[in-house]
C-alpha cells in the first residue's frame, strides 16, 4: 500500500511538471502569430513592457554636438531601454557614408543641399527643418592679429582657417566672402567646423569662420566678431529618419523629440535660430 502511495505521488508530481512545462511554453515571448517582443541582443523597437528599446544611431553635423548630446541624455532618460549612439562629423562626409550603406537611423545635416543627396540616393524620403545658423569670425581671446572686421582677414600675414569647400561651413564661408567681394586665402582647410574652432582655440591661426553656436559653445576660449548681416550667410538644418533604419519606431521618436518644444528650447539656448 505504501509503495502504491509513492507511485501515485510520483504520477501526481509528473503531471504537475508536464502542466508547468505547457504553461511555460504558452507564455513565451514569441508565438506562431509573431509577437513583437524583442529577443535579447536584437535591435528591437519595443521592450517587454511596451516601451522603446534597442539602439538608435544618429548621424549629426559637428556643429550640433552640444545640442545633440543634450538630446541623447534627455531621450535616454525618457526611454531607459534605448541607447543613443551619436556619430558626429562633417555633414558631407556623413552623407557619403549613409549613401554608401553605413547603417544608421537618423540624419541631421547642416544644410539642405547635403540632405538632398541622401534623399536622392533613396536613403531617406523627406526631411524637416529644425534650426538655422549664421556665421561669425572666431579669434583667440587675446586677438593677437587685431581682427575687428571681415576685411582684416585679407591682410598679409593673417592666418585664417576655414572649413573645406564641400562642407556646409566651408560653403557658407565662401558665400560670405562672395557677398563682401573679398578674397581670403586660408592657411588651412579643416574637415569640419569643430576642427576650425580648435585651430583658433589653440592659437594656431589668427581667425576662423565658424557658426555663431560654435563660438557660444567655446565659452571664453575664443572671441566672436560679428559679420555684417548684409553679407552674412545662414544655413538651415534638416533632420530625417533613414529608410534602412533597424529601429524605425525609436528613430521616429528621437526626431519627434528634436522637433518638440523641449527640443526647440535646447536649440535656442545653444544659439540656433528657428528655420
Tell me the number of strands: 9
Main sheet record: 9 strands, mixed
What radius of gyration results from the CA coordinates? Answer: 27 Å
Give me the CATH fold name of the largest domain.
D-Maltodextrin-Binding Protein, domain 2
CATH architecture descriptor of the largest domain = 3-Layer(aba) Sandwich
In whole angstroms, how far apart are the ends? 88 Å
> Number of helical runs?
9
Total domains:
2
Give a structural overview:
The protein is an alpha/beta fold and 275 residues long. The chain has 2 domains: 54-132 and 237-269, Periplasmic binding protein-like II (D-Maltodextrin-Binding Protein, domain 2), CATH 3.40.190.10; 133-234, Periplasmic binding protein-like II (D-Maltodextrin-Binding Protein, domain 2, 3-Layer(aba) Sandwich), CATH 3.40.190. It is 39% helix and 20% strand. It is built from 9 helices and 9 strands. It has helices spanning 2-26, 65-78, 91-99, 112-120, 168-180, 193-201, 212-218, 248-258, 261-269; strands at 54-61, 82-89, 106-108, 128-139, 160-163, 188-190, 207-211, 223-226, 234-241. Helix 5 (168-180) links the parallel strand 5 (160-163) and strand 6 (188-190). It is elongated. The model is unreliable at 1-42 (pLDDT under 50).
Amino acid at each position: 500500500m505504501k509503495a502504491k502511495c509513492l507511485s501515485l505521488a510520483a504520477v501526481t508530481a509528473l503531471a504537475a511538471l508536464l502542466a508547468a512545462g505547457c504553461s511555460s511554453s504558452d507564455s513565451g515571448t514569441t508565438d506562431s502569430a509573431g509577437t513583437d517582443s524583442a529577443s535579447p541582443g536584437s535591435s528591437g523597437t519595443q521592450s517587454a513592457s511596451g516601451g522603446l528599446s534597442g539602439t538608435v544611431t544618429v548621424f549629426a553635423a559637428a556643429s550640433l554636438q552640444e545640442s545633440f548630446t543634450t538630446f541623447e541624455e534627455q531621450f535616454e532618460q525618457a526611454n531607459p531601454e534605448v541607447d543613443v549612439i551619436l556619430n558626429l562629423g562633417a555633414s558631407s562626409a556623413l552623407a557619403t557614408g549613409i549613401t554608401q550603406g553605413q547603417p544608421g537611423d537618423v540624419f541631421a545635416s547642416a544644410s539642405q543641399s547635403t540632405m538632398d543627396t541622401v534623399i536622392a540616393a533613396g536613403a531617406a524620403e523627406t526631411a524637416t527643418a529644425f534650426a538655422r545658423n549664421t556665421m561669425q569670425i572666431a579669434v583667440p581671446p587675446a586677438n593677437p592679429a587685431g581682427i575687428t572686421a571681415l576685411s582684416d582677414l585679407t591682410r598679409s600675414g593673417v592666418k585664417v582657417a576655414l572649413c573645406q569647400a564641400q562642407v556646409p561651413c566651408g560653403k557658407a564661408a565662401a558665400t560670405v566672402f562672395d557677398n563682401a567681394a573679398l578674397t581670403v586665402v586660408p592657411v588651412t582647410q579643416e574637415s569640419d567646423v569643430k576642427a576650425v574652432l580648435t585651430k583658433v582655440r589653440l592659437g594656431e591661426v589668427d581667425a576662423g569662420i565658424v557658426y555663431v553656436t560654435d563660438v557660444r559653445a567655446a565659452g571664453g576660449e575664443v572671441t566672436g566678431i560679428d559679420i555684417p548681416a548684409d553679407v552674412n550667410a545662414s544655413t538651415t538644418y534638416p533632420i530625417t529618419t533613414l529608410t534602412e533604419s533597424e529601429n524605425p519606431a525609436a528613430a521616429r521618436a528621437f526626431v519627434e523629440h528634436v522637433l518638440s518644444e523641449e527640443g526647440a528650447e535646447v536649440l535656442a539656448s545653444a544659439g540656433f535660430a528657428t528655420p
